[in-house]
């Protein structure tokens, strides 16, 4: 594991994200968590779920987990809200790709260094659009790349919606289940090992893309 870590650090880039940007991710993570104690926390969860599906880098799982730990009885309610607004955000990303790719869409893709991943999405959509979107919606693969790509490459909107429902609901309800049964231990683990988990997250993105290409 240490050798892998050193190779990545020497390469200085993981899927378009520079190694030194982990600090930025940590600050964004802490900023998202800061909303957990706000009276507007549920509203922020909905906005974050919508935004992450089309242009924001931090997934809503972070805030969802914090809210679910503090109020376990509402864990599945938070999962439902995150699912609904994430799918709506995916539809928004779809229309960015369809009508605004040359302005907003291209800016979003290049800002996060997703050009290489985006280029491969079109080929996946030729025959496996549903499964590609569902996989991106469930895994750490950047979901926004697939929602914007779906609009650009004219994937049927109903395919995007149903695949997004399957992937996003599966993901957020899984988070709710972890929060409900494991509680504070999950957040403590994330806080303690954030840097390593960030690295693992990007490795999973690499593996996820490779797996999708191999299976499809």
Structural description of this entry:
With 216 residues, the protein is an all-alpha fold. The chain has one domain (2-215). Helix content is 78%, strand content 2%. It has helices at residues 2-11, 22-34, 41-52, 61-70, 75-99, 101-111, 115-125, 129-138, 143-152, 157-182, 184-192, 194-215, and strands at residues 13-14, 17-18. A two-stranded antiparallel ribbon has the order 1-2. The longest helix has 26 residues, at 157-182. Mean pLDDT is 78; it is low at 1-22.
Count of individual beta strands: 2
CA gyration radius, whole angstroms? 17 Å
Number of helices: 12
| Overall pLDDT level | 78
Unreliable segments (pLDDT under 50, ≥5 consecutive)? 1-22
Q: What is the global morphology?
A: globular
> Sheet bearing the most strands, described?
2 strands, antiparallel
The end-to-end distance, rounded to whole angstroms, is 29 Å
What portion of the residues fall into strands of 2 or more residues?
Answer: under 5%
Question: What is the structural class?
Answer: mainly alpha
Number of domains: 1
DSSP helix fraction = over 70%
Task: List SSEs in N-to-C order.
Answer: HEEHHHHHHHHHHH
How are strands sequenced across the largest beta sheet? 1-2
Oligomeric nature of the chains: single chain
